Amino acid sequence: MYVFLALNASIKGWNFHLPFIIVDGTFLKSTHCGTLPVAATQDAGGKVFPLAFAAVDSENDMSWEWFFVKFKKAYGVREGMIIVSNRHESILKATNNVYNEVPHVFCIFQLLGNIQTKFKKKLKRIKDEFLSAVNAYTLKKFNYHMSELEKIDKRVQQYLQEVGYEKWAKVFSASNRYSNMTSNVAKSLTTVIISIRELPICTMLESLRALLQK
Q1: 41-57: per-residue pLDDT in tens?
Q2: Can you give the pTM of this predicted structure?
Q3: 21, 24, 86, 128: least surrounded by Cβ within 10 Å?
Q4: Strand 3-5 vs strand 20-27: parallel, antiparallel, or unpaired?
């Protein structure tokens, strides 16, 4: 049902890159369809460093937990490690079960999209105050922007509180996010491999290997 790919070069290189992993899933477009989970990080210069790929039937509880079990076997746990993803329910469950010792935080753009879908008024002001709260480095500034959000729409402030401030705000983060507040690193990787996703599984895996080697 599943296949996992992590090259030795990626496993060895992991200890020399930033200690966060960004995960995302994208659709496979071959005959049997399915989903391609990816994990990546960055180097100190901000360049994308691919860590792992997989092919699974779909984004569900079993497949994401299997992916993280394989990932942990290959990469283990590092000091200061942090996991960044969207708020997919299966990813939340999997990280809690497999990596419960590692902080799991959310992509702020995906969270902002949820806010804009849920609360449809005064979106420009909500966006500005939300992003200011995200990037606040002091509790005083964070509280100021949250109070401004409350003035605009109390429901937004309550919603963000329910999500958990530690999941999206820098000032509450349990680990250093290295200013990486989105899942764009993983999304950039899935964009690069967009044509590879149309290939049969074995050919796709070989193409991924060749891409990483290149």
Answers
A1: 988 888 899 999 999 99
A2: 0.89
A3: 128
A4: unpaired
